[in-house]
Amino acid sequence: RWAEAGQKTAAAPAKLALSADRATLRADGTDLSFVTVSVRDGADVLVPRADNALRFTLEGPGDIVATDNGNPTSFEPFTAASRRTFNGLALVIVRTRAGEAGQLVLRAESDGLVPATLSLESR
Questions:
Q1: Which residues have CB under 8 Å from 83's CB, separation 6+?
Q2: For residues 25 and 94, what is the distance between their CA atoms, to the nearest angstrom?
Q3: C-beta of residue 104 within 8 angstroms of C-beta of residue 121
Q4: Beta-strand relationship, 24-25 and 116-122
Q5: Is the pLDDT of residue 119 over 80?
Q6: pLDDT of residue 101
Q7: Tell me: the pLDDT tens digits for 65-95?
Q8: Do residues 35 and 4 make contact, with C-beta atoms less than 8 angstroms apart?
Q9: pLDDT tens profile 29-45
Q10: Taking the model in full, what pTM does it have?
Q11: Which of 6, 19, 33, 106 is least surrounded by Cβ atoms within 10 Å, i.e. has the fewest?
Q12: Contact 37, 18 (CB under 8 A)
């Protein structure tokens, strides 16, 4: 066999997961990391219909500059530190601060779900 496909049915939302496009950034005040937030069930399967309200915090020498979810009907401001998921996903854009190196820790929370944290390094 040279190819195989499968599909899993998701259970109820249980936790959040964070995944960055890259974990090491330049401390120049312009470098960005795009972090995908996903709602997962207990077996770590994406819950595609999830629309949970998320809250984000960032510790360290950086800032959350935007959030999004891809929903064309959403009126939530891009600069908000909160966002609803759309089809189980959301996006957080983190920017470094010029001349300030160090570790950044992004945290995503949603009521009733296990929160997620992600470490980024600004050099």
A1: 53, 54, 56, 67, 68, 69, 76, 90, 92
A2: 10
A3: yes
A4: parallel
A5: yes
A6: 96
A7: 999 999 999 999 999 999 999 999 999 999 9
A8: no
A9: 999 999 999 999 999 99
A10: 0.92
A11: 6
A12: yes
Q: In what order do the strands lie in the sheet with 89-96?
A: 15-20, 32-40, 89-96, 62-68
Strand 102-109 and strand 62-68: the pairing is unpaired
Residue with tokens 């510790």: 59
Which tokens in the block code for residue 5? Answer: 């496909």
CA distance 109 to 54: 6
Distance, CA of 115 to CA of 15 (rounded, Å): 6
Residues sharing a CB contact under 8 Å with residue 5, sequence separation 6 or more, in sequence order:
none
Locate tokens 């160090």: which residue?
A: 102
